[in-house]
Design brief:
This protein has about 350 residues and is of the alpha/beta class. Helices cover about 40% and strands about 10% of the residues. It is globular.
Length: about 350
């Protein structure tokens, strides 16, 4: 059975009747949850059960659970330090930083999976080079440091049964503007980007990275449109030049950085034509028009790539908290927060 190309947001902490109808639509293949949807673990598990039973094939369920400023699940779960804390530790003690990085990835993914979600859109592979929206969401300002830290983070996620999604391709960390609020433009040449921001993406792709999220950033030396709508970026560079075989997700199509190409249905159409396997539409008010105006899509290759993003294995938070691995990882995150 195919997986629809839309990942949508919902309004509240339980499903409305209109949202049940959306989830039954063949274009919808996933749901992304935000703080507005999440209270305590019991409520989250009940919502996830609703989502799983809303259609014959459960939707792909995602959240942003990076740590630091971007952690949607908070009550009843471990508060995670930002990835930048691991980078600061790496400058002082690389060996310890790599161990704690794997612990961070494992702990994040284990708790998210225990609630029944498939994935968290992480790790951030951007460089910390002045972006207002990235900052300490990135591991480090140095591309080589990001490579080694992100590799260990992805290893931790994989141990917990979660596929990683590197973001924001080809790199959002070196432009100051926030693509939620405006369209960032990076005027560097492709050669400069290949030697800096693209390095972590290329490194993780060589090691089998399962997913990538594209940035709403324009790189005029390569293409006139944001990377999320660009065949040059997603087809020529990501697929052919870098050899990426995993799933490609757009960033939220409701962001200001995506608005320049048209209304939301047009944005979705262009992103899918450019090479995205799944596009994110996080504002529920935009979903009905999208379902009315977007053409049906049957793409077995995209379905196969998206199916590989489903979580593996199932446990419970209660069982997780009894494990020594969890207890040690929580202690390590507490120590990291104090140290940095």
């Amino acid at each position: 059975m195919s997986i629809g190309p839309l990942m949508v947001g919902i309004a509240g902490k339980s499903l409305g009747e209109d949202e049940r109808e959306w989830l039954a639509h063949p274009l919808v293949g996933g749901v992304i949850l935000f703080a507005r949807n999440l209270a305590d673990p019991d409520q989250v598990e009940a919502l996830i059960d609703e989502l799983h039973h809303a259609r014959r094939q459960p939707p792909l369920l995602a959240v942003d659970q990076e740590g630091g400023r971007v952690q949607r699940l908070t009550r009843g779960l471990t508060r995670l330090p930002p990835l930048g804390a691991l980078g600061r530790l790496y400058d002082r003690d690389p060996h310890q930083a790599l161990k704690l990085t794997e612990d961070h990835g494992w702990l994040m993914a284990t708790e998210v999976r225990a609630l029944g979600l498939d994935m968290s859109f992480t790790p951030v592979l951007d460089l910390d080079r002045g972006s207002r929206v990235i900052g300490d969401r990135a591991f480090h300002h140095d591309a080589k440091a990001v490579c080694v830290l992100a590799e260990r983070y992805v290893r931790g996620m994989k141990r917990a049964g979660m596929a990683a999604t590197g973001k924001h391709f080809p790199g959002h960390g070196s432009v100051v503007p926030d693509s939620h609020e405006e369209l960032p433009v990076d005027n560097r040449s492709l050669g400069e980007l290949m030697g800096a921001d693209l390095v972590p993406f290329a490194h993780l792709i060589e090691r089998g990275l399962p997913g990538i999220m594209a940035a709403h950033v324009v790189y005029p030396d390569v293409a006139p449109h944001p990377a999320s709508f660009s065949v040059a970026w997603l087809g020529n560079i990501l697929r052919r030049r870098l050899g990426f075989r995993g799933a490609v997700f757009s960033d939220d199509l409701c962001m200001t950085g995506a608005a320049g190409v048209g209304d939301v249905p047009r944005r979705a159409r262009l992103a899918l034509q450019a090479g995205c396997d799944m596009v994110l539409v996080c504002e529920p008010a935009e979903v009905p028009a999208l379902l009315d105006r977007l053409e049906p899509r049957d793409d077995p290759a995209a379905t196969s790539r998206l199916a590989a993003m489903r979580g593996i294995g199932q446990t419970t938070l209660k069982r997780v908290r009894l494990s020594r691995d969890w207890q040690n990882a929580v202690r390590h995150m507490e120590q990291l927060a104090i140290q940095t």
